[in-house]
Design brief:
With 121 residues, the chain is α+β, with helices and mostly antiparallel strands. It has one domain: 2-Layer Sandwich (Alpha-Beta Plaits), CATH 3.30.70.100. It has four helices and four strands, in the order E-H-H-E-E-H-H-E. It has a four-stranded antiparallel β-sheet, covered by helices on one side. 12% of the residues are buried.
Length: 121
């Protein structure tokens, strides 16, 4: 299993709320509704920034983090190579993201250091 963490910045023409609405109501369902793309994803999470007006909640005006779980790095490359991605999803990303500022990292299985409560706090 690999996970892609994408650090998202909204299209500057949108407010944070407009970004979140598009991401949740248009973009997420768009990907889920395309079987040739959805088949590669084990899980797709959308994490909007908490308290977007609070500078302590993120650096560089970050608007959210997308997390995609895939079975392998090969599945990531297959997902990104699907014609439906380039024809349908990529143009939608331009509507709500500032693609010049999007950054991502693909991670291996985590080393879990704490897994649950460690004491009565």
């Amino acid at each position: 299993m690999v996970k892609l963490f994408a650090f998202l910045h909204r299209n500057p023409e949108l407010t944070h709320d407009e970004f979140v609405t598009h991401w949740r109501e248009r973009h997420g369902p768009l990907i889920a509704g395309i079987p040739e793309l959805a088949r590669y994803l084990v899980r797709y999470e959308q994490h909007p920034r908490h308290q977007p007006d609070n500078p302590l909640s993120a650096a560089d005006d970050l608007d959210g983090v997308a997390v995609q779980w895939l079975r392998s790095i090969d599945d990531f490359f297959a997902f990104a190579s699907e014609p439906a991605y380039q024809e349908i999803v990529a143009p939608d990303e331009l509507r709500f993201l500032d693609m010049s500022r999007v950054r991502y990292v693909i991670c291996e299985e985590p080393n879990v250091v704490i897994d649950g409560p460690t004491s009565d706090r």
